[in-house]
Design a protein that fits this description.
The protein has about 50 residues and is mainly α. Helix content is about 35%, strand content about 0%. The chain is built from 2 helices and no strands.
Length: about 50
C-alpha cells in the first residue's frame, strides 16, 4: 500500500492507476513494497473478555 501511495505522490501513477491496482486486490498490480526500515511499533492493546 505504501509503495503504491509513493508512486502516486511521485507522479509515477495517476489516481486512476492507483484505483485500478487497489480494486484489483492483486499484489502484482501494485507498486513494489516500501522498505521496512523506519517502521515503528508503538502500542499493543489486548481486550480481555470474561465470558463467565
Amino acid at each position: 500500500m505504501v509503495g503504491s501511495l509513493k508512486y502516486l505522490g511521485e507522479g509515477k501513477w495517476k489516481l486512476s492507476d492507483f484505483k485500478k491496482a487497489f480494486s484489483s486486490k492483486k499484489r502484482t498490480m501494485c507498486a513494489p513494497p516500501a522498505p521496512a526500515y523506519g517502521l515503528l511499533f508503538r502500542e499493543c492493546k489486548i481486550l480481555i473478555i470474561d465470558f463467565s
